[in-house]
């Protein structure tokens, strides 16, 4: 498992979502396409966090009625309210990954227990 890889991808995705000048639906799509869809959840995430990734993946890729691929661009079709929900899911994933990443450096066990 490479939590460091997941941590890097989440940081990039969050940075894209925060700093890009596009609409929130477009920023969420870019976050997915430029970073998160390159994550290998079975190798990069601990079992406790995989559901967060899969929930976000399903939320983003279910839209658009395409082939269901991770980069079908479906997030562009989200309303601002839907994109806010997706952004909240991304923040939740990033926060959980960061807690695991830093767990061996700082005692965050009390945070990890409350992730679910």
Summarize the structure in words:
The chain is mainly alpha-helical and 116 residues long. It contains 6 helices and no strands. Helix 1 runs antiparallel to helix 2 (24-34) and helix 1 packs antiparallel against helix 5. It starts with a helix and ends with a helix.
Mean pLDDT: 82
Which ranges are low-confidence, i.e. pLDDT below 50, for 5 or more consecutive residues?
64-76
Q: What is the number of helices? A: 6
Structural domain tally:
1
Helix content: 55-70%
Distance between the termini: 20 Å
Indicate the proportion of strand residues.
under 5%
Alpha-beta classification: mainly alpha
Q: What is the helix/strand order?
A: HHHHHH
Instruction: Give me the count of strands.
Output: 0
Key features of this structure:
116 residues; globular; 64% helix; mainly alpha
Question: What's the helix and strand layout?
Answer:
Layout: H1 3-19, H2 24-34, H3 41-44, H4 47-61, H5 80-102, H6 109-112
Care to give the gist of this entry?
The protein has 116 residues and is mostly helical. Helix content is 64%, strand content 0%.
């Amino acid at each position: 498992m490479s939590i460091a890889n997941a941590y890097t991808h989440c940081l990039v995705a969050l940075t894209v979502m925060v700093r890009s000048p596009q609409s929130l639906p477009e920023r969420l799509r870019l976050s997915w396409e430029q970073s998160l869809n390159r994550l290998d959840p079975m190798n990069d995430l601990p079992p406790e966090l995989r559901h967060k990734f899969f929930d976000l993946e399903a939320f983003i890729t279910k839209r658009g009625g395409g082939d269901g691929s991770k980069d079908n661009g479906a997030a562009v079709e989200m309303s601002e309210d839907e994109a806010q929900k997706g952004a909240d899911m991304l923040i939740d994933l990033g926060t959980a990954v960061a807690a695991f990443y830093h767990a061996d450096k700082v005692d965050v066990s009390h945070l990890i227990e409350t992730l679910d």
